[in-house]
Amino acid sequence: MVATLLVALLGAWLLFGRERSPIQTDLLAMLPTTERNPLADVAAQRLAHANGDRVILLVGHADDEQAKAAARELGQMLAKDKVFASVTAELPPFDLQQLVTPYLAHRFSLLTDADRQSLAQPGYDPKQALAQRINEPFVTSVGTRLQDDPFGWLQHWMEQQPWSRSPLLPEDNLLTVHRDDGSYVWVTATLNGSSYDDAIQHRALDVLDQAEHAVEHDHPGTRVLRTGALFYAAFARSDAERDVHRVGLISTLGIAVLLLLVFRSPGPLLLAFLSTAIGILTATAVSVLVFGQIYLLTLVFGAALLGEAVDYSIQYLTARANAGDAWEPRQGLHQVRPALLLALGTSLLGYALLGLVPFPALRQMACFAMVGMAAACLSVFFLLPALLQRTARPLSNISVRTALVLQNIVARFTAGWRGVGLAALALLLAVPGWVQMHHDDDVHLLISPPPALVAQEKQIRDITGLGNSTQFYLVQGEDQEQVLQREEALEQRLQAMTDAGQLQGWVGVAGMVPSLQRQRANQALLAPLFAQPDRMRQWLHNAGFRDADIDRYVQAWPGTPLSLQDWLKTPLAVPFRYLWMGDAAAHGAASLVLPQGDAASALLKQAAANLPGVTLVDKAAGVSDLFGRYRRYASVWLLAAVLLIVPVFGWRYGWRSVPRVLAPPVLGIGFTLAMLGYLHHPLTLFHWMALMLVLGVGANYAVFLREGEPHVTHRPGAMYASVLLSAITALLSFGLLAWSSMPALQDFGLTLLLGIGFTAVLVPASTAPRASST
């Protein structure tokens, strides 16, 4: 009892007593490592969390002034709460020229590809370029002064920078986009903590909701679009909590009613839940201690584990009920111990194989289940005998009679050649279902984000032109110069895709800081024009430039190259610093290039083909490929699990009995696959992992029935009644996962619902000869 109390206190403290909740709502953290290059996974994590604690809001209104007023009010309201570390709505007054000034010293090293091509032509006419620049229309965005850039080379280069390509333009100190349906104003807020901290989530969402309602009330017609990890994490948490409550409540009530009907006393009910609670609390404590956190999938799975963990106490309580006045706790434990140990061993085997998958969430679920099962079983061995000293009422007559009727029917139809014929017929009926089986390994089936939030995110991307993809290029080299050169080779191909309309654009460091090789080549192209300063002065003088401006421009040649390290220290580089991976690379340097738009993965791969040091990283595709690979292995694992169980059953029951004992779970698996095929339900890795558990649970039922039958000859049907009770409790818990909001758990639950159901009905066949003779 002391150990039980300590475990309960530890579990409660780990979940609720610490400042930060161990519940992990970051869905990316559940995904496995997929890339052969470890730096690619580091880059994926870095990219995913670069803006993870930032909330993006777009305030729209048909009237431009109303949109701007609403955005200012929203920003002011959010800034008042300390849950946000910073809020950016209204920008401090600044001159767009401030974006140009840092580049003036390097103006002769920065050329676009178009200008490079023009300068390389033998017939390049600088006077024509000068006249064209003078007659250009006024630039409304980031523009260079004519006297600083008379030929427009720097202006052309600036127009290709990310801040120049974005539809977001500063108006009245607000970043604004004008569309046919009105104006939209950009507002961002950075959380004072993690998006995955439940306390931060609740506080930030409350503040945001209140502020949005106030703005919409003060400015009728205002609409606020939102996106950010905060909203997805909060949705995932609320869905998981709802699943935990629903599965836990319904399964608890259902199991309670069943236990009361079968055992006809509240005592067994309380003791069964005590044993199960010990298992789940112990599993929770160990999982948090081992992994440092607990995933949403594990929490919902833990709520469903109630139906399997209660099996051990049910078998002990059944032995007590069947013993009548001859009950002796130690003798009862001696009676059920072999069955419980054998059942525990098969369950642990199934979960251990589940833990071999390199998927953090599945490994934690396997650890949770193994610890929970072992703790629940040990509680039966060491706790229940001390608490169950007195005799108990026998199992209810209706449950025993019903079980006996079903047991005799199954035993009669599965005995001898009749059983072989029926099995062959059932298998023939299953064949069309097997033929219709198909697979889907898309990682997006793992979760089901709210359509409204996905639609808002897409709308924000369409309006602002900002991409938000899990696809990116990792560019590696021996040093930063080589990385920039390789990135430039990639960007030439991306530009071709952009010109062809296959890509909206890209964001990369080399586009903002060319390699030194490129900068020297740019200076070399301009050198002939500046070789004779007097000729340059004459060109500018004839074009109408003042002598002082001419002197400044000519004396600025050749300028200095733009250094990457110097650029990274400038305010302009702040939004893009995460693209440079130099510090994260163990050997050499690396950077990220982000394609913008929804280009096909095949086209993006083609852009990186045969480019040394350039790798397309697609986290979603990588995880999907990994799921597919392990799904294909799963059938081999399932066969391996069956083969591992065979010698155990052969040692215990004799080799001739092994096929009969294994028939219920194996046939249950086959019929489940057939039903999934008939339902046109695409198979995933989670279906196969659930089939592992069907094998373990089904083997448990065969063990319980075969081991317990000799002890209930005075009351036929009593043992199968306890097996059916165990199966129904499992269906009430695991089966409810079929209605989970998480697609992965839906697959898990549906498979277990079908598999356990088939196995529970077929399990009397494991003792058919004995049942038919009685």
UniProtKB/TrEMBL annotation:
Transmembrane segments: 244-263, 270-290, 296-318, 339-362, 368-388, 409-435, 634-654, 661-679, 685-705, 717-742, 748-768
Secretion signal span: none
Residues in Membrane transport protein MMPL domain copies: 179-394
Upper taxonomic lineage: Bacteria, Pseudomonadati, Pseudomonadota, Gammaproteobacteria, Lysobacterales
Keyword Transmembrane helix: yes
Entry-linked Pfam families: MMPL
Record's bilayer topology term: Multi-pass membrane protein
InterPro entries: MMPL_dom, Mycobact_MmpL
Record-given protein name: Membrane protein
